[in-house]
User: Fold ABC transmembrane type-1 domain-containing protein from Halobellus salinus.
Amino acid sequence: MSSGADAGGRGVEEKRRALRRLRRLQYLLWVAVLGVVVGVTYWGVGFIGFQAGVVAGRFPAMYEFIAQGFFPPDFQNFTVYTKENEITGLRAIPASFRDWGAPIFESFSSERLSLVKASLVTLLLGFMGTVIAFPFALVLGVLGSERVTPFPFNFLFRGTLSAIRAIPAIVWIFLYIPIGPPSQITAVLAIGTDSIGNLGRLFTDDLEEIDEGPIEAIRSTGASGTQTVSFGMLSQVSRSFIAWTLYILEINTRIAISLGVVGAGGLGLMIRNSQDLFQFQRTAAGLIMVFVVVLGIELVSSRIRARLRPGEHDAKGVVEALRDLANPGKWLGISTKR
Assistant:
């Protein structure tokens, strides 16, 4: 009995020593990784000529520039009505809601630029780019999965997605110059092309993680390959695909703003025009509209995705989401539940 107990004790002690060695190796690995990150960062700072002291010394001037030049925001370009009547500052916002918002609807149909019309253009650029990208991303994403296309032929489609994804949208809009100069049309094409690569990759990754059981069940009924993909695979990831598409829509809204700076229209174009004219108070108004548009699309998208993925996070309404923004416990990670 004693020899058996001694053998068992030695076995436990050996496992403890093995665990301690493994833990030491993990610590050494993390230290090595941290050392490499710090070393590369230090080298990169010198390579690009980044001078932290100079940057820090210019922050007071930047603060003074923003405080004096950007405030108070001037919303004179909020609608065509406020522009024509020279209603400036924050007064332009309530003035635009007179007659049940008639100035806003008039601005949508006007040829003249306004912040509300630019916001609509930005949303439409992101939305149409996402819609155009979805069918192409779905086809390439499905064919890129090894469950559908055998290895190594699936890498033809994966490689296509990687090649598309390697070129950002702001470069795609210049590649489409033979079609036309940077404009709303080429912006939609650029956003759509960029989204094909990003969305298709997400679709492929989701298909690689689905359960094999439903697929085998569909195959056992004598279903064709198309039926197996439709009912055995896509049925498992349909909600996830919609959620990923909404997430890409959020990103595309931001991309549409950046493309506007190079002439694609929308809020980005209005911000650039006001900056070129040194009208920084109107620039501040445009930046506020960017915040409103991006926050609005994120709240709507996150609400829908919460419904599609009830187990991922609690579904909250817009009021609850806004209330959480003012809750310091949420920012500090302090739970208020008891």
Q: What stands out?
A: The chain has a mean pLDDT of 83. The radius of gyration is 27 Å. DSSP finds 16 helices and no strands in the chain. Residues 2-48 form the longest helix (47 residues).
